[in-house]
Design a protein that fits this description.
The structure is a single chain. By secondary structure, this protein is of the alpha/beta class. Helices cover 34% and strands 16% of the residues. The strands form 2 sheets. The chain has a 7-stranded parallel sheet, with helices on both faces. Strands 10-9-8-11-12-13 form a 6-stranded parallel sheet, with helices on both faces. Helix 5 crosses helix 10 and helix 8 crosses helix 11. The longest helix has 16 residues. The model has no long low-confidence stretch (mean pLDDT 96).
Amino acid sequence: MRVAVLSPVAWRTPPRHYGPWEQVASNIAEGLIRSGIDVTLFAAGDSITAGKLSAVCDTGYEEDRSQDAKVLECLHISNLMERAADFDIIHNNFDFLPLTYSALLKTPVITTIHGFSSHAIIPVYKKYNSIGYYVSISNADRSPELEYLATVYNGLDTNDFEFNDKPDDYLLYFGRIHPDKGTAEAIEITKKSGRKLLIAGIIQDENYFNEKIAPQLNSEIEYIGPAGPKKRNELLGKASALLHPINFNEPFGMSVAEAMLCGAPVIAFNKGSMPELVKHGQTGFLVNTIGEAIEAVGQIKNIKRENCHHWAVSQFSSDKMVSDYLKLYEQILDT
């Protein structure tokens, strides 16, 4: 089987720090390669893969802002589509734009929908309902207007994460600094709990950071910047818990799965996919208010960290994800 994996071209695949879609695309590609599949990864030129790499640029447009994002995206997508006949299946991890080629191809296109930036993009997906093969990354993140082949949870390479049963006393916020992700709420929860908080992630909303976050930073509320894989493992493994007080219906939540792989329980606002990721009372707590989150901080000691790890391995490993996708590829090719 010859598979083309189309990654976004904003960041390197896999990303150095931020880039969840690129990370999943990488995990799919490398997992398929380990399974003996012939894979070509379409991504930025500095991407890393054990398979073949096809690129139209040296680096992603978020890492080299001299490039025009739309121009790069057009060149990137067309680079694959003009070679579509070389592959048995195309796995699209690049949102809705590649679908505009799909009716012109004989090669089937399976699309992992990593979330909807807005309802405005639904008509493109809807147009290709009859020929598209759509996969959701959680049952919560589905549009009633679309037809889905399956739900496949994002998978992580479990070898990249170290389980730690002896955490330090700090709480952790791990994600982009943005109102949707609840950075300010994490600070409020921590302060009212009398604990220490470490904040790690890219600053996606500078005004929010400058107005809501920076004035509260001190020795107990510390921003340490983006964290690559090595630092991520240390932060997650030593955290007594991950605070995830999101203000939107998050499609998945990579940091939630990553935290549990390292043994850290998760305290998350009960929105979007969180009930599918967190087993309430067993791998963390699903809460609805800051007050409930504060109460949950006091109950962290009742969560067994090995339960968090085993749950995450069983549900969110790249091995499981790749196995699920291979079954879908075979199902598509048999039709």
